[in-house]
User: Which sequence fits this backbone?
DNA sequence: TATTGTTATACTCTATAACTATA
DNA sequence: TATAGTTATAGAGTATAACAATA
């Protein structure tokens, strides 16, 4: 019964997310106040820095792709399907570390927008082969251009060389 | 009305979180399957690597501090209060980038456990001066030892030098 | 029996609005 | 009027459990 309301709710939520991302930028440094408040042990914790960085990076991604209304997880799903057509939902979920239950809803919304289609598997009637639609392929190409722009923002923020070092250091987590 | 159930619910949730953290370790690499599934453009995105890294790092933190039942955000709140006694809730929220509405609940649970106390401000009757209790100070010392152990896990995972480079690169986000 | 996709539920985190009591 | 703390609500994300269809 809640299913019918999804579209309008999601649209409203997305608009809110975009508003947030637009306004809540440029304060990565806590320029508001409290620069004199010490962080003590937190300074030495990689997890704290990584969390703050991730908040910034996701906000910039959402803002940069706001015109096409695509969030980081949706982008990752479409990218993997685009690069590996015919994957099952289980395979995508495992590869990206997403719960298969959650992927169901992600794919619902991408299918509603005609970016992805679930095609019955020829070999296993339980599973779906995931493909991008023609519209999805065109759209993904545009998303990739915008995502590359976002990536340039990251390079501007932390420095080009630092960004590359970071990618190298964290390569084992991809 | 939901307030009364919180304690038992939270306890159950925490137990579940600990179980998760205990079992869901060691698969940071997607060793399950799908190593032959290409990530395409995702490989070049800092945000994807950072997200995966953060998932790993938070799970290890939760696991390492499971015996004392402290999560990353609770730790950060106690650390900042410990280093800056008398801060208001607004000041802590701003410094850590937490919503003030959320900090209310975080402090509720830390106060219930007698780690933190809200003392009426002498100068502004709207605000609270936050302090660690005696018990909180002792507890925090132990949390810091465990957090340092967690930090050693990070160093083992990505390498000691890489961890230090990472901290340097992301220093502007703390 | 085990697995795929699905539905439902619960908890965490983030964001927002509105209320109160102060300032 | 504006601010500090609080309460309530909604959405995203994560984790589980349970079910039907299929293997």
Assistant:
């Amino acid at each position: 019964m809640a299913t019918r309301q999804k579209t309008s709710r999601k649209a409203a939520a997305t608009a809110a997310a975009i508003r947030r991302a637009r306004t809540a930028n440029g304060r990565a440094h806590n320029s508001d106040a409290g620069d004199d408040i010490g962080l003590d042990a937190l300074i030495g914790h990689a997890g704290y820095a990584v969390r703050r960085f991730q908040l910034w990076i996701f906000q910039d991604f959402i803002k940069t792709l706001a015109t096409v209304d695509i969030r980081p997880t949706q982008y990752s799903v479409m990218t993997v399907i685009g690069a590996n057509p015919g994957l099952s939902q289980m395979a995508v979920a495992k590869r990206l570390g997403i719960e298969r239950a959650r992927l169901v809803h992600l794919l619902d919304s991408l299918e509603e927008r005609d970016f992805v289609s679930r095609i019955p598997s020829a070999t296993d009637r339980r599973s779906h082969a995931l493909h991008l639609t023609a519209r999805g392929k065109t759209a993904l190409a545009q998303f990739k251009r915008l995502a590359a722009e976002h990536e340039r923002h990251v390079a501007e923020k932390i420095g080009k060389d630092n960004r590359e070092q970071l990618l190298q250091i964290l390569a084992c987590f991809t």
